[in-house]
Amino acid sequence: MSKELALIEALRALAPHPAARGLADDCAVLPFGGETLVLTHDMMVEGVHWLPGQDMADVAWKLVATNLSDLAAKGAEPVGVLLGFTLGEEDARFVAGLGEALQAFGVPLLGGDTVSANGPRSLGLTALGRATCSPVPSRSGSRPGDRLWLTGPVGAAMLGFEALRDGMTGDSAAFRRPTPRLEEGRALAPMATAMMDVSDGLLIDAARMAQASGVTFAIDSEAVPFPPALPASRRDEAMRWGDDYELLFTLPADANPPTAAHCIGVARAAMPSPVIVDGAVPHGNLGYMHD
Amino acid sequence: MSKELALIEALRALAPHPAARGLADDCAVLPFGGETLVLTHDMMVEGVHWLPGQDMADVAWKLVATNLSDLAAKGAEPVGVLLGFTLGEEDARFVAGLGEALQAFGVPLLGGDTVSANGPRSLGLTALGRATCSPVPSRSGSRPGDRLWLTGPVGAAMLGFEALRDGMTGDSAAFRRPTPRLEEGRALAPMATAMMDVSDGLLIDAARMAQASGVTFAIDSEAVPFPPALPASRRDEAMRWGDDYELLFTLPADANPPTAAHCIGVARAAMPSPVIVDGAVPHGNLGYMHD
């Protein structure tokens, strides 16, 4: 078990609250007043989650977008965000990018804290949402026979990252400025048997949903959407790269999604591997492993 | 204007939401589901907010306690917390202290995120509360003639810090394990004209409340409670040291608090200095200045 997972297990053990599924980078879901709150908190660290020298406006955008993506996977409507900010270089660029993201997604900044520190900067964002349907979709509701769907291509962020890293002319927007699938999430939430966003890689996130649901996903790689610029030789890699923030979800076999999506596989009774691709167990790491 | 305040001003400008008073380390307050949510997010950084080598169990306790103290100042009942955690040494001690604090204050851990990073560790906590009265007390409601009250002594955390730093036998618990005044806050909230917790120092926090309210507080230093161990020569210093997390509040002149508290002064029409002590403008820094 990784150090992070061991810590999460220890944290869960001390606080066995039903909403604490939020600890494994899922959202917390809890009743408040007559409605349901959806909460998530994600961090970004310099040198880990962004490249040294990267425009802080893009970092701010991504911090907002990745947290809102967690809300999208619950079909939640964003209510606001709280920011934890380490002061540093290019704070004005950060504020500019934060403002653009908040405006783009119609979300107010409600509060937060700022600190000074030496060393790599650390940013945290708490996003607060309002559930739009009940029950709120979880990762654990997929049943054998359900079909597995994906709202859009995987691999664009990988290409964007490489373009940015190498100073190439390729389009890096998919990596720098992802779009949370908020509308899609709200449309899908009432009918999805399980849903999550693809943040760490299609295969590893599919494996997590399969394990939470007690099924195995059989994925047909020919059905997975990729960006046109991706060479066919890199499709396997693209299925293991994260940061695309598309929604991965299951629907009953006879249902079709109310929003654009690609059927990429089917849920089967659990096998030893939570994911099989084109009938075989995928080799190696499935995606980004938190350490 | 400090770099931090400049940033906060910039953030406020881009998100003029009524709840965004949370940006100046106050809480965000917003309606949700027929009730009122109270939200705060505070960070702690190694080497800034805790001593290198300090027991991580105490750091965890303080992270929880300081955030709950912000809720206490709103009279809010804690609902849960989300943790942003940088992995490092002594994580097991952190988890132990976190568990003790959550149990002591009856608050569940709802979710969060963990990251790996080099350099000084950064921790963030979002605390979520439910308002118990309406309106929720702010910092801006003090009126000339109101009396200024404090729930308990200031200076104990300063002595505790020194004992811990110097490896002395003195009691460091007041610095290591502060108690948020949750019960007191709930009792006071319906009647306080303004309220906040004393986190950065009595004088500076009083000045902030005075400025927010458009008054000046005339403080009688003889009426300020101090711990018995504090030498009389250090009382001025104790009024400028933070971390005691007592509640500072105003009541109409004819009202008495329903909980133990000390009347330490009175609100007057605004003068050039937001705080005067024993009739004079205090010299030098009033307390901990965020930079």
Describe this structure as you would to a colleague.
- Two copies of one chain form a homodimer.
- The first copy, chain A, is of the alpha+beta class and 291 residues long.
- The first copy, chain A, has two domains: 3-130, PurM-like, N-terminal domain (60s Ribosomal Protein L30, Chain: A); 147-277, Phosphoribosyl-aminoimidazole Synthetase, Chain A, domain 2, CATH 3.90.650.
- Chain A is 28% helix and 24% strand.
- Chain A has helices at residues 3-14, 56-72, 91-105, 156-165, 173-176, 182-188, 202-213, 235-238, and strands at residues 28-32, 35-45, 77-86, 109-115, 122-130, 147-150, 194-197, 215-219, 247-251, 262-269, 275-277.
- Chain A has a six-stranded mixed β-sheet, sandwiched between helices.
- In chain A, helix 2 packs parallel to helix 3 (91-105) and helix 2 (56-72) runs parallel beside helix 6 (182-188).
- The longest helix of chain A has 17 residues, at 56-72.
- At the A-B interface, helix 1, strand 1, strand 2, strand 3 and helix 3 of A face helix 1, strand 1, strand 2, strand 3 and helix 3 of B.
- Chains A, B: Mg(2+) 5 binds at residue 200.
Keywords:
five-stranded mixed β-sheet; 8 helices; Phosphoribosyl-aminoimidazole Synthetase, Chain A, domain 2; 291 residues; six-stranded mixed β-sheet; 60s Ribosomal Protein L30, Chain: A; globular; alpha+beta; 11 strands; homodimer; 2 domains
